[in-house]
């Protein structure tokens, strides 16, 4: 299974009054992880948009296990959990430098035409990208 990794330095602006990362900022980190995974595979999300497609999030599920704090560096690990005809599920772990898990997550996405929001398979949009996702997906349909 292919896992992409991206280090993130926790910034002060990402924390709440308790000194820990505010829960909504984890969603931003998931996007950073997805973008890094896509780049590591040789593709770009911006390229997808340039061709008239976008990939909206249809579901996000995050489990918080231990707090990340200001000044700490965390690692976002991202992989393809499942890739089907129309839906892709990304898997994530956000871990502390010592390897303990701060959170786990999944996000589901579809590809749609930017102007109509009609779903389209990644295979039709970019067969090479689709083939790579099929190859590395943890779960195969």
UniProtKB/TrEMBL annotation:
Gene3D superfamilies in alphabetical order: Hotdog Thioesterase
InterPro entries reported in the protein's UniProt record: 4-hydroxybenzoyl-CoA_TE, HotDog_dom_sf, YbgC/YbaW
Molecular function terms from GO: fatty acyl-CoA hydrolase activity
Pfam families xref list: 4HBT_2
Keywords: Hydrolase
Claim: Metal-binding is one of the keywords in the record: no
PANTHER family reported in the protein's UniProt record: 4-HYDROXYBENZOYL-COA THIOESTERASE FAMILY MEMBER, NOVEL THIOESTERASE SUPERFAMILY DOMAIN AND SAPOSIN A-TYPE DOMAIN CONTAINING PROTEIN (0610012H03RIK)
Protein family per UniProt: Belongs to the 4-hydroxybenzoyl-CoA thioesterase family.
Protein name in the entry: Acyl-CoA thioesterase
